[in-house]
Amino acid sequence: MSTPVLLTVLAAALMHASWNALIRGAPDKALYTVLLHACSAALAMLLLPLVGLPDAASWPYVGVSVLLHSVYIALLMRAYDGGQLAVSYMLMRGLAPLMVCLVSAPVMGEPLGLPSWLGVLGILAGIGLIASASGQPVRAVLSHPSGRAAVLNAVFIAAYTVVDGQGARVSGNPLGYVLMLALFEPVAILCMQLRRRPAALMAYARAHWPLGLIGAATATGAYATVLWAMTQAPIAIVATVRESAVIFAVLIGSLWFKEGRLAIGLAAACLMATGIAAIR
After folding, report:
1. Is residue 245 within 8 Å of residue 255, measured between CB atoms?
2. Is residue 53 within 8 Å of residue 125, measured between CB atoms?
3. By three-state DSSP, how is residue 53 classified?
4. Measured between alpha carbons, how far is 189 from 263 in angstroms, rounded to an integer?
5. 177 and which of 54, 89, 109, 134 could share a cystine (Cβ 3.0–4.6 Å)?
6. What share of the chain is helix, strand, coil (3-state, %, to 5)?
7. Nearest to 261, CA basis, from 132, 147, 126
8. DSSP symbol at 185
9. Would you say 168 and 228 are in contact if contact means Cβ atoms under 8 Å apart?
C-alpha cells in the first residue's frame, strides 16, 4: 500500500469514527441514524447525475450490498443504545477485518504475506487492549444487548466490505457506486420507521436536519474514500487499515463522552499503529 493511499484511508477512518460518535451522542439514536442515512440518500440524489452511474456490471453488487446495509443500519442503532462508543465500535469494526482476511485468499485470490498477517494480529491485539480500557468485564460487554448487536454487526460489516470492494473494482466509477448505494440503502429502514413513528421522525428531521447532513457528508465521504482505496490496494489490507478508526473512537469516547481509561487506550493505539506499519 502506497503512502498516499495509506494516509487517505487513515483520514477516512477518522471520518468514520466521527459520524459513529454523532450517533452515540444523539439523544434518540434510532431517529438520528435514520436521519443521517436519509440525508445521505438526498445527497446521493443530487450528486449522482453529476458523477454518473457506475458500470452496469456492478449493479448486482449494489443490490446485495443494499440488503446487507439494511441489516447493518438496524444493528447499528442497537449497538449504540446503552453501549460505550469505544466498546461497541471496537466489537463491530475490530472483528470485521479478521473475517475479511479469512475469506480474502479463497474468495478474492488475495493471499496475505507474513508481514501483513503480523500487522493484522498487532491491530487485533490493540483492539483487545482497548476493550480492557473500557473498565467492563468481557462477559458483561457480550451479555449486553448492545454488545451482542455489535458482534453480529461485525459479520455484516465483513460481508458488505467484500461485496463493495469487488463492486467498486468492476464499477469503473467508485464514487458513483457509493452514491448509488447511499441512495438505496436506507429505503427499508426508513419505511419501517415511517410506519412505526411517522410524526416523531418528521419532527426530528425538521429540528436536526443540519446535523443529519453533516453526518451524511462525513459518512459518504469516508466510504467513498475507502472504496477508492480498494481499487488501488488489496481489499483485506484496506479493510484492516480502515479499522484503525477504533483508535479515534477510543479517543473520542474518552475525551468527549468520558468513557474508559485514556492511558490504556493510547497504549492500544500505539500497538495498532505498529500493526498498520507492518501491513505497509
Report:
1. no
2. no
3. coil
4. 38
5. 54
6. 85, 0, 15
7. 132
8. T
9. yes
